[in-house]
Structure prediction request, 191 residues.
Amino acid sequence: MEGLGAMSPAERYAAAADNFTRLVGGVSDWDGPSPVKEWTAREVVGHLVTWVPGMIGGGPGLEFPSGEGALADPVAAWRALDERLREVLADEELAVTVHSNPHTGQAPVAQVIDGYVTPDLVFHGWDLARASGQDPELDEDYIAGAYAGMTGMADMIRGSGQFGVQQDVPADASVVEKFFAFIGRDPRWTP
Prediction:
């Protein structure tokens, strides 16, 4: 995955989602562990397909699949959510609809997807790739940008409870390793 930063929000989502779909298709052991200590590969996908509808859903035209059944069939649950997100981004009226959420404020739906869903696909794509022995195909510039932005908000991020304890990395760690260590993953984790 290359050049995410230069893409439009819809293109960036599509590229991240295509890669995530590739990773979902490559999982052979859905009950295998992931770098997120509490989650299996199945639960990585389950997380995405349940929180996204809760965050973005609501309002005229913004109905999403519930994510129910994600643990039973993560592939189908992911495909249903991905299809719906693509429909929303392709609909010019829905994409600019102002979405309001007590945690994220007010912003056009396309901006919310770009700021929350797309990064989560990239970051949890790494989790799924590690859990299933696949290449995550990360855009290092995108990861470097996320790392720079998130380290500036470290106190808020840590206080949210959404990220694990920062992990130690050697001085010569890559920006990708530093980023995943920052969000609480052991960047050299293997199953």
